[in-house]
Every structure is written in structure tokens, then in C-alpha cells.
Amino acid sequence: MTHPRTRLERGRNVLGPALELVHTGRAPTRAVLTTELGVTRATAGAVAAELQSLGLITVDARPGAVAGGQGRPSHRLAIADEGPVALAAQVHADGFRAALVGLGGRIVATAPACVAVAADPAEVIGDVVRAGARLLAETGRRCVGAGLAVPSAVAEPDGTALNPLHLDWPAGAPVRDIFNDCLAAAGIHAAGHCGNDVNLAALAEHRHGAGRGADHLLCVATGHRGVGGALVVDGRLHTGSAGLALEVGHLTVDPQGRPCHCGSRGCLDVETDPLALLEAAGSRPGPQGSLLDQARDLVTGRYPHDPAVRAAAGTVIDRLGLGLAALVNILNPDRIILGGLHGTLLAADPDRLGAVVGDHSLWGRSGDIPITPCVLGHNSLVGAAELAWQPVLDDPLAALAG
């Protein structure tokens, strides 16, 4: 005799999609989950209960009405407060930081930032992993995986950092292998993943921040040095055939401009990053604080009343606008988000940047493309955690077995 499958058996293939809906905030109640998954209420209930049993979400035992909603009250769904975490690490030109990040992009704990980066990638990555290991020991949280954000294109499938231009690392450093070796040495039995910092910032903003709801999201951002870009299409990063797509920092915006590390001149990387702004404003970089913080402080503190700062910011905004216009012509995004110094410049003079993009792009004249700042703190860390969470989102039961 053939027994009909249980509701949970029928719903196992939607456990991952269900978790992703809660993870990204698109299913705040079981009723919404039912609708989004296209299953029966009973199946959605069984799926939610299974995710709760895995310690990933909580299901409100007493249904409550959503403010302004209609129909019967529904059980609320939320990320489990004491659920597992991913270890996230970021290395940049001015230091590194480790954090623990739960579902929903929530930063659970962070280690103090370090402001020195050694020339040996194994030394730096070992330090940041040990900082993460201390956080795990202090919190007692289960670790589902680890992600590392680096200021370089990361070639796939090898996981090598091809051009860490603003670090003293050798080109082609096997950062993913080093990361996994350091995790094992620290006693962290979890897979390590690695990606470009702006790619990961874009992924985090698309799932949890300023990029929510965009189908074709373009992100352009400064790091502490340099400029990077990323494209998220239909919820997935577009990384090209080998993980090297969207190296927008080496888009020329002034052929007679500053020499770039890549061998060209006038690239976004050297015309619109924090050092470019400081130099244009005649402000000598100081020993205290990162270049990014110094440039942001210059704009927020002196832009309204200092002609030299306004002129320097205007020049950088114009160069950025030319680069964005070229990217709009090529990629036709439906939203642009700006991070790092670029987000600060947008806030200082949004009309100027929008006008430059509109005047120099074909599609900018025919349709209004929203340009907004990134909104997540430490979005590259959150994005690094997304890499670690992805296997759980794909198949929660397989990822958390045992």
C-alpha cells in the first residue's frame, strides 16, 4: 500500500526558499510565506515548524493581526535570536575586522578593528580568523561557515586574489586556501568562502538594504582606497566567467588624469577615491583615522562653507558621474547604490551627480534611474556572511545535518 507523503515531505523542497524569504524579510508571517511559496497553509505550517526545529527561525505561537492588514490573523515569523551564525572577515587597505553575522544580515558581535595590514596574507588572515574564533568562544554560537571580503578581484574557481592593488600582497595570492587553512588551525570546522569586498557589499545591500527589490542593481563604492563595482541581476551577483566582472575602478574618466596602478591614466580608482578628494582639496592625509574617514569628515564638516572643499568635491562628483553614465549605457540598471565616499558625496550634492549621469547617458535621459546611498553598516562583512549562509539557504537540512 502506498502512503501519501506527509506535509513536511511535500514541503522539504521549499525549505530553502522558505528560509530565504524569512532571511530577506519578505515573509514576516506564515500567511505571506504560504502565498510566496504557492503551497497550502498546512504545508507552509510544516515548513515553518521544521525551520524552527533547526533553530533558525521562531514562529509566534499566537497569531496576531498585521497593522493595516485584512483577513484572519497569521503566525509571525522571525529570525531566532540565539540561532547559528557565520563568521565574517574583511581585510582592507587600512586594517581588518571580524564579526559574527546571523540570519537576516544581523551583526551579532564584532571584534575591535585592527589598523595594520602585514604584507604576508597568511599573517593577516590568520589574525582576523583568530579574532573571529575568540568571538565564537565568547558567544558560544554554532558556526555554519565563514566568509572573507578582500579588496581585490577574486578569480574562480581557484579563489585567488589577482590584483590586491592597495595591499602589499603578491598578485595571485591563494586567499581562499589560506583562509580555510587558518580556520582549521583555529579549530573552526566550517567551510571558508572568499569574494571581492564591493561584490559582497552589493549582495548584502540587495538582500537587506538599499538594493531590496531591484532587478538589476549596480553598486559603485570606494573602499579605504580605490573604487569597485558590482552588479546583482535577479538576486544573483554577476561575476562573469571567472569571477572578474565589473572591475569598474579601471574605467577611464579623464584620459589626462592621474596615473593608475593598472598602467592607465585617469581611472575611477584614482580620480574618485578618498585620496583623490583629499589631494584635490589640498588636505594632507593625517596619521589618525583611515583615508576614508578623513575624506568623509572633510565633506560632511566643511563642504557647506569651504570653497576649496566644494570645488574638490564637485570635481570628484563630475568624474564619478561620467563613470556612472558609461555604466548606465552598458548595463541599463534599474537602481544605482553608492558606498564609501561616493555615498557621502551623493548626500552632499545629489542634484549635481544626477545631472551629470543624466546628461552623459543615453538611458539617463529617457528614464529616471534612482541613485541612493548604501544603508548597511559594515555591508562587506554582511556580504561575506551571505557567502557562508548560502549553503544553508540552498538546503537547510543538508547543511545543518549533525
UniProtKB/TrEMBL annotation:
Membership in a protein family: Belongs to the ROK (NagC/XylR) family.
Pfam family, one: ROK
SUPFAM superfamilies: Actin-like ATPase domain
Provenance organism: Streptomyces hainanensis
Cleaved signal peptide residues: none
Protein name as annotated: ROK family protein
InterPro entries: ATPase_NBD (IPR043129), ROK (IPR000600), WH-like_DNA-bd_sf (IPR036388)
